[in-house]
Amino acid sequence: MPKEIKLEQFISKEDTTFPVITKIEVQKKAKERYNIYLNGEYAFPVDEAILVHYVLHKGMEISPEFRKELEEQDGFRKAYNRALNYLNYGLRSEKEVRDDLVKHEISLTTAQTVIDKLKEQNYINDLTYAESYTRTGANLGGKGPRVITQELKRRGLTDEVIANGLEQYPCDQMLENGIELAEKVLKRTARSSSRETKNKIQQNLMQKGFSSDLIQEVLQSIDTEKDEEDEYNALQDQGEKLWRKNSRLEPFKQIQKVKTSLFQKGFPSDLISQFITEKEMEEEDE
Fold first, then answer.
1. Cβ distance 266 to 230 under 8 Å?
2. Tens of pLDDT, residues 231-250
3. If residue 100 lies in a helix (H) or strand (E), which one and from where to where?
4. Distance between CA 283 and CA 61 in Å, rounded?
5. Has residue 12 got a pLDDT over 60?
6. CATH code matching the domain that covers 7-120, chosen among 3.40.50.970, 1.10.10.10, 3.40.50.11260, 3.50.50.60
7. Averaged confidence pLDDT in the chain
8. Sequence-distant (≥ 6) Cβ neighbours of residue 266 within 8 angstroms
9. Which candidate, 61, 66, 56, 60, places its Cα nearest to that of 10?
10. Where are the domains of the chain?
11. Reported pTM
12. Contact 242, 257 (CB under 8 A)
C-alpha cells in the first residue's frame, strides 16, 4: 500500500478555503463503499478502510492534493479487494492475479503495488502454487510432467519455480499413473490390433505429457500383445466393416482396399490373407 501521508501536509496554512465534506453516504450496492460530497455535491467514492484510516468527517476541508491522495488510496483498495476476491476461488499465480486486475481496467502500476502487498502477506506464492498444481495434476488428472510444465509456464511461473514444484511428483507415481492410463486404453482397444493398441498407448501417454523413457517402462509393465485368436477376432470386426464400406468397388479393388486398410491398422499379413480367403469363399457360395 502507498506510504502513509500525514493529513497536515494537505492542509494549507494560508487563508485559502478548500471544499468541505458536507455529506458521507454509504453506497446502496456496496456497504463497504461510501460517497463523499463536497459543498453539497457528489465528489468521489472511498472504501470504508480509507474512511476510517483518514478519519473523514463532515466539516473536514479537502485540498486538491489530499483529494488526489484519497483517490489513489481508494484505487489501491479497490484493486486489493478485487485481488482478494479472485484469490478466494483458489490459489493463483502472480501472472494470473496481474492479468485479472488489468482485465478490470486497473493500471499496471497499481496492480504491481497490490501484488507486492499480497506477496508480503503470502497470499501469492508461485512456489506454493507450483507445488499444489503439480500434486493436483498428478493425483487427480493423471497428467505427465511435460504437460504440467507447459501449463505452469502459461501461468507465468519461472523454470526454476516449476522445477522445484515438480519435486512433488515422484518417479514411482509417474509410472503408476502411466500404467493406469495405459490400462484404460487397453480396454478401449479390444477390437484393435496389438500394434495399433501399442501405438495408441504411446500416443495417449505422449499427449498426457509423459517422457519417452517412462512410456517404454509402462509398455514393459503391461501386456499389449493379443493371442492369435483375439487378434483374429479383432481383425474380423474391422475387416467386416471395411468389406461393407468398399462393397461397391470391383472385387479386385475391394480386396486391395481392405488389405491395405487392415495392414495400416497393424494386423499381421497372414491373418489378413486368411480373412480375405474366407470372404472370397463366402462370395462364391452366394
1. no
2. 999 999 999 999 999 999 99
3. helix 94-103
4. 102
5. no
6. 1.10.10.10
7. 91
8. 192, 193, 194, 195, 196, 199
9. 66
10. 7-120, 130-168, 171-221, 228-285
11. 0.77
12. yes
- CATH assignment, 130-168: 1.10.10
> What SS3 class is residue 90?
coil
- Which triple of cell numbers denotes residue 244? 461393407
pLDDT on residue 286: 59
Do 194 and 266 form a contact (C-beta atoms < 8 A)? yes
284: left (phi over 0), alpha (psi -120 to 50) or beta: alpha
CATH topology for 171-221 is Arc Repressor Mutant, subunit A (1.10.10)
List, edge to edge, every strand of the sheet that includes 21-26: 21-26, 33-38, 41-47
Query: Which pLDDT belongs to residue 263?
Result: 95
Residue with cell 479393388: 253
CA dihedral 155, 159, 160, 163 (to 10 degrees): 90
Q: Which long-range contacts (CB under 8 A, 24 or more apart) does 178-186 make?
A: 178/144, 178/205, 178/210, 178/214, 178/215, 178/217, 178/218, 179/218, 179/221, 179/222, 180/142, 181/142, 181/205, 181/208, 182/218, 182/219, 182/222, 183/222, 186/222, 186/224
CB neighbour list of residue 70: distance below 8 Å, 6 or more residues apart: 36, 44, 46, 50, 54, 56, 62
Cβ neighbors of 46 (< 8 A, separation 6 or more) are: 33, 34, 36, 56, 70, 73, 74
